[in-house]
Amino acid sequence: MGKHAIGIDLGTTNSCVGVVANGVPIVVPNQWGDNLHASVVHFPGGDRVIVGNEAKRHVILDPDRTVWSVKRILGRKSFSHEVKKAQTFCAYQIVESENHAIRLMIDGQLFSPEEISAFILREMRNLASAYVQEDIIDAVVTVPAYFNDNQRQATLDSGRIAGLNVLRMINEPTAAALAYGYGRELRQRVAIYDLGGGTFDLSVMEIDGDIFEVLGTAGDSYLGGDDFDMRMTEYLVDRYLRDTRVDLRQNRQSLQKLREACEEAKKLLSVHPEVLVSIPDIFVDRGRSMSLEYMVSQKEFNSLVTDLVQRTFKVCDEALGAARLHPRDLDGVILVGGPTRLPLVREAVQYYFGQPPNVSLNPDEVVALGAAIHANSLIQSGAARGGQIGSAHLLDVTPLSLQIATVGGYTEMLIERNTPIPIERSRIFTTVRDGQERVNIRVYQGESNREEENVLLGYFDFEGFRIGYRGQARIEVTFSIDASGLVHVTARDLETGLRQRMTVALSSALSEDEVVRLSQRGAGMELANG
Amino acid sequence: MDIQKLMALASRIDELDYYQLLGLQRNANSGDIRVAYHRRARTLHPDLFFESTDEQLKVAIDRVYKRVTEAYLVLRDDDKRAYYNEGLTVPQKRLRYTDEDEKRLRENKVAAGGTTPQGRKLYQEAERLYQSGDRVKAIQTLRMASTFESKNVFFQKRLREWESAK
Question: How far is CA A340 from the centre of its chain?
Fold first, then answer.
C-alpha cells in the first residue's frame, strides 16, 4: 500500500483526477496545466494510444479510430437503447459479443468498453503518479449515483484492467458533498444537483459533522450536457437544410464538426447573450466547399433545452419524496457538472429550491476532490485505531430496487431503492417439482414488476442439494449490496448448512483471466501524452 | 471501540434486538433513530478497519455493520417498525425483520381496505361505525366483510383490535 491514493472522476465527456498531497486535496493538472481531460481515446495506429484533450482533436479528423462518450455504453447490453443510439452516430462499428456484451471494432481490433475506459483511467493514474512521484495503484473511482450493478461492475473491471486497486466506487454526488463539507463540522441538509455530460443525479444528503448520509437519491442515466449539444446540433442541421438544401445528417464528419462547434457555443452561452457558430468548410459539394454561419442567442438556446432542464426536476421530486422532504427543508443546493454553469439551469434550480444554489465550488473538479479525500482516508485507516481518526463516513443508499423473477414474467422486490448500504437480505427458495436438481434465480434491478422492464443482472443456478419431493429442499439465498453498490449473491442449503455451488450467467463481470489478458494488452500499448 | 469488544458484539449479534443494537429506547423518535445510526457509523463502520489485515475482524465488523443498517432500515420506517415491534411482544420473539415479514407487511397493505367490492364496502361501513362509537355493530359488519375475504389478515387484525378494545 503506497503513501498516496487517487480519486478519479471518470466522466462521460471529461475526466478528472485528485490526490491528497501533504494533507491537502488537489486536482492534478497535465503538463499543459489542464485540470480536465477529455474522455476521448484515439488509436493513431501501431500500438499507440492517445488519451485526453489531444485525442479529442481526432474526433473530427479520424472518427473511425477515436472513441468518445464510451461511458454511455459502458455496462450496457447490445439490445439496449443507448447502444442502438451510439451505433447510429459512431464512425466505428459496435458489434455484439457473447452474453449480449458489446465490442468496438477499431482498425480491425476489437475493444470492450471496459478497455477503452481503462485507457482513460490509466492516463489519470499516470498523471497523478508523475505529480507525486510515486507509482500509485490505489484509487477511488466515482460513478453516477443512478448507475446499476452492470455499469458499476464494468467500471470496476475498467479499473482492474488499468492496473488499479479500486478501493471503492462512490457516487458522484456523494463525493461532491464530501468535498463540500469535509472538515467543516457542518450540520446541514443539502441537495446535490449533478448534471454531467451524460447523466443526471439528485441526492438529498444530511451532513452531520463527519457523517455524510444520503437520505434519498434519484437519477436519469439518459440525460446530460451531451443532449443539450445534440439539441442545438439538430436545430442547426434543420436550419441549414432549409437554407441550403444540404442535409448534414448524410455526412458523419460534417455532423461531428457541427456537434463540436455546438458544444463550444453552449459553453460560451453561459456568459454571452449570443454566440456565432461558424464552420468555414462544413461540407464539400461537387468540389465546392460550403460554410455554415449562424448566430444563436441565449433565448433561442434556452427554448431548445427547457424541457430537458424541466426533466431534472421530476427527478428532484422523486429524490425529495424518498427523503420525505420539501425543497424548502434544505439548507443548501450544490451544483456539480459543467452544464450547471448555464444560466438557464441556475435560474431553474433557484426557482425550484427557492434559494440560490451554492456556486463556491468548481463544478468540474469537486467530484474528483471528494474521491481523493475518501481514497486518502481509506488508506490512512490502517495507521490509526478504529474510530480515532478524523475520517468521514459516507452512508449511501442503493439507487435501484433489487428484484427477482417469480413466474409469468413478473418480478418481486427484495431490496427497495433508497435502502441504506451495505445491507443484506435473505430469502428461502425451494423446489417446485419432485426430483428437481437445480434452482434457477434471475436477478433484476429496476422499479417495475415486469421482468422485461427491469435490467437483468444475472442468472444464478443452484445445485448439489438433496434431491427429493418438491418443496423439500430449502435453500437460503442471501443478496447483499456492498459499500460500492455492487450486488453479491450467495446460497446455503438449510438442511446441511453448506454453501451451495452456484453458476452465474449473463453477469457483466469479466473473469480474472480476461482482466489479466486485457490488462496485459493495454499495458503493451504505448500511452502517448494527451 | 476496541477489537475485543467488537468481536464480542459480533458473536452475540443474533441475541440483540434492533433497539439494543442501536442503543435506543423503545419510544425513540425518528430524530433519535438517525442520531443513533450516525453514532454507530462512527464506531462500527467497516471503513475504520479498511486497511486491517485481520480477516476475522473484517468479517465480524461487516456482519455487525450490516445489521446496524438493517436496524436503521426497519426502525426509520413507521410501518416496518410497528410490525417489528409486534414481533418483539410475542413469546417466540422475532429479533430480526425478515424478508417473510416484509412480504406479510406488503400483503397487509394490499389487504387494507379490502380486495373484493363487497369486502371493501362492508369494511368502510365498519370503520365508520367504529369511529362513531358503535363498537358492537362495527364488529358485526367487519365479520361480515371477513366472510367475503376469509384470508384477509388485515381484517382479522382489525377485528382482534376492536374485540379487545374497551
Answer: 17
Domain identity same for A40 and A135: yes
Shared domain for A414 and A379, answered yes or no, is no
CATH of the domain at A259: 3.90.640.10
* Res A528: pLDDT: 66
Shared domain check, A161 and A55: yes
**What domain count does chain A have?**
3
Residues A173, A233 within the same domain: no
Q: Cα–Cα distance between A357 and A360 in angstroms, integer?
A: 9
Which one of A114, A138, A194, A201 is the catalytic residue? A194
Q: Per the domain annotation, does A121 fall within a domain?
A: yes
Residue by residue, what is the 3-state secondary structure of A415-476? ECCCCECCEEEEEEEECCCCCCCEEEEEEEECCCCEHHHCEEEEEEEEECCCCCCCCCCEEE
Residues A68 and A160 in one domain: yes
On whether both A476 and A413 belong to a single domain, the answer is yes
Q: Residue B105: its chain A contacts at CB < 8 A?
A: none
Catalytic entry in A9, A149, A213, A263: A9
Query: Per the domain annotation, does A113 fall within a domain?
Result: yes
CA distance B25 to chain A (A): 22
Tell me if residue A516 falls in helix, strand or coil: helix
Number of residue pairs across A and B with CB atoms under 8 Å?
Answer: 76
Sort B150 into a burial class: Cβ within 10 Å, 0-12 / 13-18 / 19+: exposed
Q: Is the dihedral of CA A371, A5, A516, A109 positive or negative?
A: positive
Q: Flag if A213 and B66 touch (Cβ within 8 Å).
A: no
Interface of A with B (CB under 8 A): 1, 167, 206, 208, 210-211, 213, 377-383, 385-387, 389, 391, 393-395, 414, 419-428, 480, 483
Q: What ipTM does the predicted assembly reach?
A: 0.91
Q: What is the pLDDT of residue A501?
A: 63
Q: Which of A198, A41, A58, A30 lies closest to A114, judged by CA? A: A41
Same domain, yes or no: A16 and A139: yes
Range in A456-465, A468-477, A501-510 the model is least confident about: A501-510
Looking at the structure, tell me whether residues A371 and A436 fall in a common domain.
no
User: Which of A7-21, B46-60, B79-93 is modeled with the greatest confidence?
Assistant: A7-21
Cβ contact (<8 Å) for B50 and A378? yes
- Grid cell 451495505 in the structure block, residue: A422
Going by the DSSP 8-state scheme, the letter that residue B112 receives in this structure is T
- Give the range of the structural domain holding residue A451, as residue numbers without chain letter: 402-499
